[in-house]
Amino acid sequence: MKNIFFVIFITFSGCSFLLAQDAEKDVKKADKLVGLYLLDPKTGKDKLMEAKSLIDAASKDATVAEAYKTYLVKGKVYNELAANENTQLIINPRYRIENEDAGIIAYQALENALHKAVKSFEKKDVYVIMQELSQYLNNFGSSLYNTAGQNYNKYKSAAKNFEAVVLINQNLKDGGQKPIFDNESDINRQKYVVAVCAKAGKDEITSIKYFEELEAKDYNDSTNAGAVVYESLYNFYTNSDEAKADAFLTKGRSKFPKEMNLLFAEINSFIKKGKLDDLIDKLKLVMEKEPNNTSIISTLANVYDNLSQKEFEAGNMTKGDQLQAESFKYYDLVLEKEPNNANALYSKGALYYNKAALVSKEINTLANDYSAAGTAKYNAKKAEMDSYFDKALPYLEKADELTPNDVNTLIALKEIYAKKGNFEKSNAAKAKLEKLKK
């Protein structure tokens, strides 16, 4: 019985040995086919594709998958696939890359080959292919970025191709070879491109990694790319680490005081934190630089409105009136520039509406005073309230024409119509609201 088991064991061992030999042969054959392909690239593409099939299969075989030779041949094969795509891009800049990952797969295989290499000539073979591959990766990155449109995955793929060039550069430097980039400025520029592409591809881990490296290097260029670095870091950390986000924003604003995006980020930060008093000077500064930016003017008007409401609630009516007058002034400026600005129309109408609401509270305190003086005060206040409703109405009606399904506008119109005794229009506004809820 023991002899039988021994024979069976020998048989299975023999099968494994044969499989290993087949995988090794496939690697060698793939290498040979790449060489034959390079002798005649125009007519030898079938040889390259056969080499790809062989090396892909061998890469999954545990007996040879981790071998230097397997990784090197795979790097060669995919480098030539990338070279083919690159040639098409040169001939036709609008060419759509078919093997988008060819360069990345080639780089990953070559990096593994580098780790497996023992002899200096083995490493040298890897470095030579890496040098050639780097130009294809850069070209792929540019093509993918330029044709991405709304395709986030293409931006992400572009970032990977650009990043592989950064990694190849480091491999070459570590190996004492001539690097891809002549100086640190060029390296940082490449890292910036990686970060921007990764950001567009919603790959925050990669983008923030490089943005933080660039910030530590105090990176900037003639386009003030450093401002983008600080803006990106602020936006990334604003919801997870407020202190860190604020530190990046403060530093960015200090270094790039004229960059509008950072100024807008600071404005949004003040709004988020409710620092309305501090916000006014910032908004006025933007207005000086962008006098026709109605979005900024509207924001300034809204800030004054919010401040006035706080004063009214605190009983500081005079101060509230002063702040509200500023709000009216800036909404009027928006409407002067854009008469059909629905937001400004609604907001100005809402200012009058809220003013009427304040007066209505005073009316309620006079409702039970039936004396002649009390009645006179009541009538005067009611007339004042009605006048505010009358002023609000045309702005709200115009806003409703421009944005007929705006809930806040319909609510205000329903109430004003009811107050004025126009129940037909009030009920119509109510019906529209109920329809919107459904």
Outline the structure in words.
With 438 residues, this protein is mainly α. The protein has 18 helices and no strands. The protein has helices at 2-39, 45-58, 68-91, 102-116, 120-147, 152-174, 184-200, 204-216, 225-237, 242-255, 260-273, 276-289, 294-313, 317-337, 342-366, 372-402, 407-419, 423-437. The chain is elongated, with a radius of gyration of 35 Å. The protein starts with a helix and ends with a helix. Residues 1-19 have low confidence and may be disordered.
What can be said about this structure in brief?
This protein has 438 residues and is mostly helical.
Key attributes of the depicted protein:
438 residues, mainly alpha
